[in-house]
Amino acid sequence: MAILEVLKGVRTHPSADWIYDEVRKKLPHISKGTIYRNLNVLEDEDVLVELNVDGMVGRYEIRQDNHYHFICQQCGRIFDLNEPIETELNVKFAKKTGFNITHHHLEFRGLCHDCQAGLAKSN
Ligand SMILES: [Zn+2]
Ligand SMILES: [Zn+2]
Predict the structure, then answer these.
(1) Which of the ligands is closest to the CA of residue 68?
(2) Which residues contact 5 (CB under 8 A, 6 or more apart)?
(3) Which residues have a Cβ under 8 Å from the Cβ of 91 and sit 6 or more positions away?
(4) What domains appear along the chain, each with residue ranges and CATH number?
(5) Is CB count within 10 Å lower at the N or C end of the chain?
(6) DSSP category for residue 15
């Protein structure tokens, strides 16, 4: 429960270690092992997703509709882009290639607002 509360409060797809630090503020005696175990359980139950992002391990978010991500190359935070998935791309490339395309994975990279303003704090 504490894990879900932490994740509901952030939009930056934190790492397991970051989640551990936040949960520990509320439950000071909790162990890292407990956090990792519960993250796995929540993932198995399909409540959480571990993001599959190039060069980054163990970033979590609460499962929601498929959406695009923006990854800041300076601070490493991952943001949701509130744009619908362009399913026309699947159709377009299916037509071109004859492949039966079910979905695509696309991520955007650059600098977030804070980093553009020189205010980067790492996550
Ligand atoms: Zn940034
Ligand atoms: Zn997301």
Answers:
(1) 2
(2) 26
(3) 101
(4) 1-64 (1.10.10.10), 65-123 (3.30.1490.190)
(5) N
(6) B
Spatial CB neighbours of 12, under 8 Å, sequence gap ≥ 6: 77, 78, 79, 123
Name the residues around ion ligand 2, CB cutoff 5 A: 61, 80
Q: Are 14 and 60 in contact (CB under 8 A)?
A: yes
63-106 residue pLDDT tens: 877 888 999 999 888 898 888 888 899 999 999 999 999 888 88
Q: Which ligand is nearest to the CA of 123?
A: 1
Per the listing, tokens 């990854």 go with 71
Quote the pTM value. Answer: 0.72
Q: Which two tokens stand for residue 49?
A: 């997703």
Amino acid occupying residue 21: D
**Residue 15: strand pairing partners:** 59
Neighbours of ion ligand 1 (CB under 5 A): 72, 74-75, 112, 115
- Nearest residue to 109 via CA among 82, 69, 80: 69
